[in-house]
Structure formats: structure tokens, C-alpha cells
């Protein structure tokens, strides 16, 4: 009889997919945070905005919030901070004061151009333990899991309780 894998066992928190992915993200992410904060003076959330915006690209604030998968209030605070620091252009088109167009400034582009190769190298190093076939499988499996999670979210959304952020304020724990 073959061993039961953690993904099949699900006996404790250590076996849960989201917990395991969070541990991987925390281990790898710590290196990226040090590069961002120590090397470029930006937070990982700010890097998420800068890294996802392409040079010359213009996005609305709503499109950016969706792209970085963050609520509009937090995205708005990020936009304000990046704009104040001269890393993001914020323009309100005439006739539509509710829409904001965003683009990277030359300083934001420079951070992206300097930081992206370093982050790519961290990713490359982590993935170096996989064969080409395993990487292709990983990409396929991640996409499959993403689709499954999105479908499940649509199904469960009406049944799940509303979040009460006030209850969790002051903690940085994630719940799985």
C-alpha cells in the first residue's frame, strides 16, 4: 500500500493545501520583501502594483484592484501612497471624476526594471529543483486549482458568512 499524501490525508492544518502554499509563499516571499524594503524602499503590496503594471500601460483604479486582487479601499490607499512618492501617475479624465487612470512614472518604471530581474532569479532558483516536465505539470496543476477555487467560490459565496474585519483587526494571521 502506498503512503497517503498530505493532500489526501488532510488530518491537520499541516496537511491543508492553503497552509502549505502559505508556508511556501512566506519562505520565498521573505526574500522578495527584503529586496523591496531594503533595496528599493517599497512594501510588497507596493511591489505588487508596480510589478503588475507594465511600462506605458494605463489602468483604471478598479481594474488595478481586480488585477492585484485587493479590495478597493486598500487599493486606493496604495495608489495614494505610490502617487505621493512619485512612483505612480494618477489622472482623472475630464467629464468622469469617478474614474482614475493610473500609470507608472519614470521612477516607478525604474524600480520595476531593477527589481523584476532579481525577483525572477529568486523564482528561477526555487523552481530549479523541478525538471521541465515537472514545471509544465506544475503550471497545469496551478491553473486547474485556480479554476476549481474560482468555481467553488461562486458556489459557496452566498452561503459563507460576511467577513467582519473589525474582529480580526490588529492581527496578521491568515485563517485556512
Describe the fold and architecture.
One of its GO terms (molecular function) is DNA-binding transcription factor activity. InterPro entries: HTH_MarR-typ, MarR/SlyA-like, WH-like_DNA-bd_sf, WH_DNA-bd_sf. It holds the Pfam family MarR_2. It comes from Limnohabitans curvus. This is HTH marR-type domain-containing protein. This protein is mainly alpha-helical and 176 residues long. The two termini are 30 Å apart. The chain has a three-stranded antiparallel β-sheet. It has one domain: Arc Repressor Mutant, subunit A. The longest helix is centred in the last third of the chain and has 25 residues. The mean pLDDT is 88. The protein contains eight helices and three strands, in the order αααβααββααα.
How far the N terminus sits from the C terminus, by CA atoms, comes to 30 Å
Mean pLDDT: 88
How are helices and strands ordered from N to C?
HHHEHHEEHHH
**CATH classification class:** Mainly Alpha
Query: Which band does the percent of strand residues land in?
Result: 5-15%
The rough form would be described as globular
Structure summary, number of beta strands = 3
CATH topology: Arc Repressor Mutant, subunit A
Radius of gyration, in angstroms, nearest whole number: 19 Å
Number of discrete domains: 1
**Portion of residues in helices?**
55-70%
Using the 3D structure, state the CATH architecture.
Answer: Orthogonal Bundle
User: Main sheet: which strands, in order across?
Assistant: 1-3-2
Q: Which structural class is indicated by helix and strand composition?
A: mainly alpha
Low-pLDDT stretches are none
What's the main sheet like? 3 strands, antiparallel
> CATH H level: which superfamily?
Winged helix-like DNA-binding domain superfamily/Winged helix DNA-binding domain
What count of helical segments does DSSP give? Answer: 8
Amino acid at each position: 500500500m502506498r503512503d497517503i499524501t498530505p493532500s489526501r490525508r488532510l488530518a491537520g492544518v499541516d496537511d491543508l493545501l492553503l497552509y502549505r502554499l502559505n508556508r511556501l509563499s512566506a519562505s520565498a516571499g521573505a526574500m522578495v520583501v527584503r529586496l523591496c524594503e531594503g533595496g528599493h524602499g517599497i512594501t510588497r503590496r507596493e511591489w505588487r502594483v508596480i510589478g503588475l503594471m507594465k511600462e506605458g500601460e494605463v489602468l483604471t483604479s478598479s481594474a488595478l484592484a481586480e488585477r492585484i486582487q485587493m479590495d478597493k479601499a486598500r487599493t486606493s490607499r496604495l495608489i495614494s501612497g505610490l502617487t505621493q512618492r512619485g512612483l505612480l501617475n494618477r489622472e482623472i479624465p475630464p467629464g468622469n471624476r469617478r474614474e482614475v487612470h493610473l500609470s507608472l512614472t519614470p521612477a516607478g518604471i525604474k524600480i520595476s526594471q531593477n527589481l523584476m530581474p532579481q525577483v525572477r532569479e529568486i523564482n528561477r532558483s526555487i523552481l530549479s529543483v523541478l525538471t521541465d516536465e515537472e514545471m509544465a505539470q506544475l503550471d497545469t496543476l496551478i491553473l486547474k486549482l485556480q479554476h476549481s477555487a474560482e468555481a467553488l467560490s461562486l458556489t459557496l459565496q452566498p452561503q459563507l458568512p460576511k467577513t467582519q474585519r473589525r474582529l480580526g483587526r490588529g492581527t496578521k494571521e491568515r485563517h485556512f
